[in-house]
TrEMBL record:
The lineage of its organism: Bacteria, Pseudomonadati, Bacteroidota, Cytophagia, Cytophagales. The chain crosses the membrane at residues 17-34, 87-107, 127-149, 161-178, 190-207, 219-245, 257-278, 318-338, 350-369, 376-393, 399-417. The keyword Transmembrane applies. It comes from the Bacteria. It comes from Hymenobacter perfusus. Keywords: Membrane, Transmembrane, Transmembrane helix. The keyword Membrane applies. This is Glycosyltransferase RgtA/B/C/D-like domain-containing protein.
């Protein structure tokens, strides 16, 4: 009977995946018809024309990702630009080669005319399979984020959330400046949606499940591997340390400190192993983000210069970070406004405390980066949307969902019609 029940769930999962896939394709596909850039100075990359009134930007970072995925050994070269994200390159390799073989098969059979490929910029033609492979990875990451958001939505609203409200919130996740500029190109920005949701999921599991807390060493090693996929996964370490802290009453202070040190060591182990491998090849590990943009390493200034100078630098960087907040201003404003609503939700166990703590963690991380872009700050939006979801339970009336749907559709129309962003 259990097997039958489990099998009976597949149709609903398949329908859900199909619905979310359709949502992603419709929302991001409509961006093809957004206004094209007027000059090449407004974007970094190549604008690919799909027709007289349709196209999208292939980001300039993508060529290195694709070239490295085709030849992963390039990561072992001195000062390789993507050397700090080797597992993302290997994911591109794992997906890119099968897609390349499929493209070659279509070309050989005549199903993919040679003229179509020849219309691409020359440097992209041999990399078409890898380009498609990375876009498929974008789709997989965004789909995973939508599915995880749905799970967290019903979990945090104790199953009382509205399906219509969920659909509205998902529209905001798939229609925004990040998906507009980066879904159809080779980049890592789809992790902007997945990372914060995954952090929240792990935090809730550690808080509620002793079984998960027992698996902390394995989770630390897995988190360290994910940090070699995308840098923001490093935020998983504080979450795992929080899980260990939850067990503080069951062990001595020395035991707790040793456990925390073990988790830190296991989390760092994949990166240290990668650095050691490079060293064996006679190559010094190179982190492009740290060297080119000063990400995090600018904090070393606290030991290298007088305190007043450091405070001046920190203040200047804080202002630069605050300048990125208008990009997520509507989400912050709605979340703050709804939090002031006087009614309290009944018979729910929605908790904003964990979300608030993670928002503070992410904000601190973004401030400390030393490199500030609107697309990085957008990492706060998925958790802000979940915060809004919980507070919406306070709002009475059946017309709330319909009003929100109208607002979401208006938001999407504005995203399509507005000029930019392109990268």
């Amino acid at each position: 009977m259990a097997t039958k029940a489990a099998g009976g769930n597949w149709p609903s999962w398949l329908r859900r995946i199909a619905a979310y896939t359709l949502l992603i394709l419709v929302a991001t596909g409509s961006f093809w018809f957004s206004p094209a850039p007027l000059t090449e100075d407004e974007y970094c990359g190549t604008y690919l024309h799909l027709g007289p009134h349709a196209g999208f930007t292939a980001n300039c970072d993508g060529f290195v990702y694709m070239d490295n995925a085709r030849q992963p050994a390039r990561l072992l070269e001195p000062r390789a630009v993507r050397q700090s994200r080797p597992l993302f390159i290997l994911l591109g390799t794992a997906v890119g080669y099968p897609v390349t073989w499929a493209v070659q098969g279509l070309q050989s059979s005549g199903l993919l005319p040679a003229q179509v490929v020849q219309k691409l910029p020359a440097k992209y033609q041999p990399l078409l399979g890898f380009y498609i492979g990375y876009v498929l990875l974008n789709y997989a990451v965004l789909l995973a984020a939508l599915l995880l958001f749905r799970h967290l939505y019903y979990r945090l609203t104790a199953g009382q959330g509205s399906r219509l409200v969920l659909a509205v919130l998902l529209i905001f996740l798939v229609s925004n400046q990040i998906t507009k500029a980066f879904f159809w190109t080779v980049h890592q920005q789809m992790f902007t949606f997945l990372v914060p949701l995954l952090l929240l999921y792990v935090a809730l599991q550690l808080r509620e499940s002793g079984r998960w807390r027992a698996q902390l060493p394995g989770l630390a090693a897995l988190g360290g591997l994910l940090a070699l996929v995308y840098g923001s996964f490093v935020l998983g370490l504080p979450v795992l340390l929080y899980g260990a802290w939850l067990q503080r009453e069951k062990q001595t202070t020395v035991g707790l400190l040793l456990r925390l040190m073990l988790l830190v060591g296991l989390f760092l182990l994949p990166t240290l192993g990668w650095i050691a491998l490079l060293k064996l090849r006679g190559v010094t590990y190179y982190n492009h983000e740290a060297e080119a943009y000063g990400q995090l390493v600018w904090l070393h200034a606290v030991w290298q210069q007088p305190l007043p100078d450091f405070l001046q630098l920190a203040g200047r960087n804080l202002l630069r970070f605050l300048a990125t907040l208008p990009a997520i201003g509507p989400f912050v404003a709605v979340a703050a406004g709804l939090l002031l609503w006087p009614r309290r939700p009944e018979r729910t166990r929605f908790s904003s405390r964990c979300i608030g703590a993670l928002l503070l963690l992410q904000t601190g991380f973004l401030v400390a980066l030393g490199y500030y872009k609107d697309r990085l700050t957008f990492m706060l939006v998925p958790l802000l949307l979940l915060l809004v979801a919980g507070v919406l339970l306070r709002l009475p009336g059946r017309w709330v969902g319909i009003g929100l749907l109208a607002a979401a559709l208006g938001w999407h129309a504005w995203q399509v019609l507005r000029y930019g962003p392109f990268s």
